[in-house]
Design brief:
The chain has six helices and two strands. 58% of the residues lie in helices and 9% in strands. The protein has two domains: 63 residues, no CATH class; 67 residues, no CATH class. It has a two-stranded antiparallel sheet with strand order 1-2. It is mainly alpha-helical. The longest helix is centred in the C-terminal third of the chain and has 36 residues. A hairpin with a 2-residue loop joins strand 1 and strand 2.
């Protein structure tokens, strides 16, 4: 569990607890706990649910991190986000990074790099084609 989730959960379960008490009980530093619990309302994302709290985002608090309720495996997420082949391969390699015997970390890192470079080339070709089309249209006007 992320430290932001520990702090949030403890503060929700113990609403009378002060910030120093929350920090001590969760083992999270006072400055981080203070930043998290003071300020404007934010949303902490946990799989399948959104929890609103007052604090500073730690990067995990955005609606686009909410998992679809029917997602059971990576392919469900890849389809839900409409990822192309390159991005899907990067996503898979990142998810299994260092966890499977048939794919060492170095192999996965090279695979991520290969597909990232392929995606960059695809995007650059698209941009160049769009620029050429726009230049052609400018000459017609």
């Amino acid at each position: 569990m992320k430290k932001s989730q520990l702090v949030l959960r403890y503060s929700q379960e113990n609403p009378e607890a002060t910030i120093p008490q929350v920090a001590e009980a969760t083992g999270v530093s006072y400055p981080y706990t203070y930043k998290l619990l003071s300020g404007k309302p934010k949303t902490l994302i946990e799989p399948g649910k959104v929890v609103t709290f007052h604090g500073v985002s730690d990067g995990s608090s955005a609606d686009y991190y909410v998992l679809p309720e029917d997602a059971k495996e990576l392919q469900d997420l890849i389809s839900h986000k409409d990822m192309n082949a390159q991005i899907g391969e990067i996503f898979r390699a990142c998810y299994r990074y260092g966890e499977v015997a048939h794919s060492e970390m170095l192999r996965d890192a090279k695979k991520i790099k290969f597909y990232a470079e392929a995606e960059i080339k695809r995007l650059e070709r698209s941009r160049n084609l769009a620029d050429e089309i726009n230049e052609g249209l400018d000459h017609l006007v």
